[in-house]
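The data are set out underneath:

___
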Amino acid sequence: MELAELLARSQKGDKEAFARLAEHYQPYVWRVAWRLMGNREDAEDLAQEIWLKVFLQLPGFKGEAAFTTWLYRVAANTCKDALRRRSRQQETAWEEEIAVTVREDIEGELEVQQLLNQLPPEQRLILIYRDVQGFSYEEIAAILRINPGTVKSRLARARQNLRQLWLSARERGREL
């Protein structure tokens, strides 16, 4: 069954079609959640929350944007909400979050993830969408509902901040 047909059937409440649609897009949703949240456990929980929201909101999807754009917007908004909840509920140092990631991830990804975790969520999100997911400026602009020019300037700022974090870590001579 084609993705368009799965989408149409899912919008009409077909749970089997929705399960197949979710199965197809799950790796993309999970990757966004993992990159933003910084650890697997939070990403898995958040991915479930994202899919619940998608299921509940799908009948209202009008197709004004591509389904993937809409899906990533739901994912981004859900992640941002979770990050706000996290900061309100507890002030966990990022080093504690990294301890979980250390056991689960390879060294190169861990270093990048540690640095990404230090960026503000908006900068982290744009970097992930552009440099990890490979989205165009226009796709990112549609997902975040901002101008492509704003995407470019925020991406430049995010890359500059990431570079500064990397240089600072190297100057301190500490292993991330």
About this structure: Residues 91-107 have pLDDT under 50 and may be disordered. Residues 3-172 form a domain with the Rna Polymerase Sigma Factor; Chain: A fold (CATH 1.10.1740.10).
